């Protein structure tokens, strides 16, 4: 899940803060320590968010290590220059083929045999 569940963690931390507030307030008021309540809630929320951030960072580190070690698709693209050159060549060839096709279609529109057909189609 990683970073996608960060909003859920924040919501749960907020709810936990409310529960801590509701349960701790009477005791803190009784001992005159009501001022400590916001600090307790923020510390609880911060601890929950920190745990989720640490989990996300561990997942990012795993992906980064896989890329560095050459495992996975992204690593192959990063480390394999031959593959990158082939992919670039495919892209260039596709662009050229598209240009030639457009030029040929334009030329066909002006030929004697197909001129009427293209005029009918454009109407």
Any overview of this molecule?
This protein has 123 residues and is mostly helical. It folds into 2 domains: 79 residues, no CATH class; 37 residues. The protein is built from 5 helices and no strands. α1 packs antiparallel against α2 and α2 packs across α3. The chain is elongated. The model has no long low-confidence stretch (mean pLDDT 78).
The sequence of SSEs as H and E is HHHHH
Point out poorly predicted stretches. none
Mean pLDDT: 78
> Structural class of the helices, strands and pairings?
mainly alpha
| Shape verdict | elongated
Q: How can the largest sheet be summarized?
A: none
Distance between the termini: 54 Å
Beta percentage is under 5%
Fraction of residues in helix: over 70%
Tell me the number of helical segments per DSSP (H or I, 4 or more residues long).
5
Total domain modules = 2
Quick overview of this protein structure:
The chain is an all-alpha fold and 123 residues long.
